[in-house]
Protein 1
Amino acid sequence: MGLIEELQKERGRLEKAKKWMESSKKGTKNYKKNEREWSLQCSTMNGKNRYYLYDGESEKKYLSQKECKIIRDLSQSEYEKRLKKCVDQELVRLIRLQKCIMKNSIDDVYEKMHPGKQKYIQPVEPSKYQIFEDWKNRNYQGKGFAPDAVEIYSNNGERVRSKSEKILADMFLSKGIPYKYECPLELRDRRIVYPDFTFWDIENQREIYWEHDGRMDDPEYAEKAVRKIDGYVQSGILLGEQLIITYETSGYPLNGRVVEILVEKHLLGRCNL
C-alpha cells in the first residue's frame, strides 16, 4: 500500500509538471531568422559564459548581454522540451507499473471470485475489504450521556452531543463514509479518549480520527481541547495524517465548505468503497 501511495504521489507530480508546461508559452518558442531555425549554444571562457545562436550547420552568431531576452527564451524553451520528453516517458512507465501492481494484487484473487465460493475459501490472509468489514462490525462502548443532556440524533440513528456533530455525521452518511461515534481509543500514556468520529483508511490499513472542538471561545474548554490534541500527537497520531480537526465559536459556526474540503481530501476514496 505504501508503494502504491508513493507511485500516486509521483504521478501527481509529473502531471502537475505537464500542466505547467502546457500553460507556459516560452517552451513553444523557436528563434527563426532568414528561414533558418537557430538554437542556443553556451561555452565558458575565463569563468565567463558566452552565448551563440547556431543554425545547426556552420553559422554562429555571438549574443551580447543586451540580447538577454533571446538567451532567456531559448534557454527556457530547451529546458521545457527536454522536460516534456522526460515527463512523457516517466508517465508511461509509471502508469504501466501502477497497472501491473494493481492487476497482481493478492487481494484481487479472492475478491474476484464468486461470492458463493468465497464463503468456502480460507484466504492466505484477510483482504483489505474483509478487514474493513470486520472493523465496521466490531462492537464498542461509547462514552454515554448525562441524564439532563439535550437529545440530538443523526440521520444514522445515533445520539450525538451537538447540532454541529449532527451536521458532520449526516454529511459522512450522505457520502457513504462509515464511521464510529465516540469509539474509545487508548493513547500511549494509557489514557482513554473518545474521538468524535473514527474512520477506517482502507488503503493504509489504519484509523483516522476527527475531532470537532465546538466552544473554542471558552478558555477552559479550549485548554482541554489543546491538551487532547497534544495527547494525539505524542501518540504518533498527527494532524493532517490520522487526525482531522474542525473548530467553531459562539460567533463563528462550523463552516460547511471547510468540512467538504476536509472530507474530499482525507476521507473520500480512502474510507469508503
Note: The chain has a mean pLDDT of 88.
Protein 2
Amino acid sequence: MKYYKDNAGKVYAYELDGSQDHLIGDKIAMTLAEVEAHINPPMSMEQAIRHFKDMTYTHINKRVLDYDVLNNTDYQNIESFAKYAAVTTSSRHAISVQFITWASNIWDAVNTYHSTLTAIPTNAEFKAVLDSVVF
C-alpha cells in the first residue's frame, strides 16, 4: 500500500499498482517513519505500564514453572506459594517464603522504576529491572 495524508492529517492508503492513483489528488505522501508510526502507533504510558506489568507476571510465573520442572512439583503460579508460606511447619514453608519474598521484591523494583519513568523503556531495558532482583 501507498500511504498519503490530507491537510487535516487523515491517512489514506492506496494500492501499489497505481489503480487508485486518480484518488490521491493533493494529498501528501507519507514518509516511511510516518507510515510505520501509523501502522504501529507507539504505546501510551498507561499502555506501556500495563504491558510491563504483564511482563512482570510472566517473569515471576516462569520462575515458578521452571521450579516445578526441576523439582517435580505443581505450583503453577506464584499464588500457590502463599498458603505454604503461612504454615511455618510445612515442608514447603522455606521455598514458599523465598518465592513470595522474591516476587514482592520484584514488584517493589517495578513500582519504583515506574514512578521514575519519563519515557517508555524498551522491553530489554525493563527486563533488566526484573533480572536485577536476585532470587
Note: The longest helix spans residues 45-71.
Protein 3
Amino acid sequence: MDAFVLVLVVIGVGLVAIWYFNRDTKDFDANKDGAVNFDDAKKAVENTVQGFKAVADVNKDGKVDVADVKAAGKKAKAGAKKAATKAKTAAKKAAPKLKVAK
C-alpha cells in the first residue's frame, strides 16, 4: 500500500511540474505548430526538464553539480542566520513590554 501511495505522489508531482513549466501555454499545443499531438507531449516534457535544470543550477554556471549543492547550502545558511537575527531583534523589542504576573 505504501508503494502505491508513493507512486501516486510521484505521478502527481510530475504532472504539477509539467503544468508549472508549461503554464504559459493556453492550450495543449506546446510546440505551437497548430496541432495537438504526441510532439506536444514531448515538448512539454522537454520544457519541464529545462525548467528543473534552471532551478537546480543555483550558481548559474550552466551545470548542475556539487557546486550547486554547496551554493544552496550557503544560501540556506545565510537565510537562516538572517531570520535568527530578525527574531532576536523582535524578541528584544518585545521583552520590555512583557509584564510578569505576580
Note: The chain has one domain: 2-97.
